[in-house]
Amino acid sequence: MEEQKQKSVYITMPKNFAKKIEYTDKQTGEKKSFNSVTLPKGTTIDDKDVSYYQFTPLFVNESKFMGENFVDIPLVPDREVILSKNQIDDTGKVVLDDDGKKIKDTIAIAPTKLKAAIDGGRREYLEEQKQTIMLLFNKSFIHEQEYVDKETGETKTFDYIVMPSNTIVDGKDVGGYRMTSSYIQQRGNYVEVPVKTDKPVVLSKVARDDSGKVIVKADGKPEIAKVECAATVLREGLNKSFEDYLHEKGEKIVERIAQEEKHKTPRLSQKAKEAKTASAHQTSKKLSDPSLEK
Prior knowledge:
Helix content: 10-25%
Mean pLDDT: 84
Radius of gyration: 34 Å
Low-confidence stretches: none
Strand content: 35-45%
Structural class: alpha+beta
Order of helices and strands: EEEEEEEEEEHEEEEEEEEEEHH
Number of helices: 3
Strand order of the largest sheet: 1-8-7
Number of strands: 20
Distance between the termini: 128 Å
């Protein structure tokens, strides 16, 4: 009896991790392509972080069960998958060999082990998402600041968000306080900032005295005032601040309309306009024909 053929190992991933790379064959000049799949951040194998390592499967198909935003990747179960990634030096540059070619780190891994690592990373990611909420800000509250890395001397930037005025957190107005974030998702005129619910959010600003002057410490640096709060409490404060802003804006619009109406010349109704026009015509006739005046 012929030995039953082993079934393929299927790995399912979001489709944005899989790309088709096109190239020209140097010998024949023919246009060719291959599939390139990048492992998501947080993928670990035997305690080694293999985030962003890549492999080149023969087939990448639209997922049968997860829909068009996912892909299924069939792998031969007894054939190791080769993962690779460019080596990076301490300055963040790709390491080259004597011929100028990129040096790569490579790992050979069994398909079943790779599947377990990817599935495990996705479970952790989904669990992490449950502990994440989004804070919504108008994009005008987002700012970018430059700084110089003390170790490398390189100029870098980071984003910070300024809390809107009248944002109340645990009874304290934190309007003007700042928070930093490494990830900001822009959506039109607004941005979403993810924050963890299992950790306090730290807000800070330069401390000032009652006269508005910056408080300076003994070492000459400005004193920093900090506030820690739960992510859900901050979201409630931001939502209330936004509601108050819309309410105040609405009241101002109503007041402006009322003032405009107050100074406008009263409008005549259609019937009044017709009566006024008829009266004018009658007066005109009387002036042109004195016999009508009796």
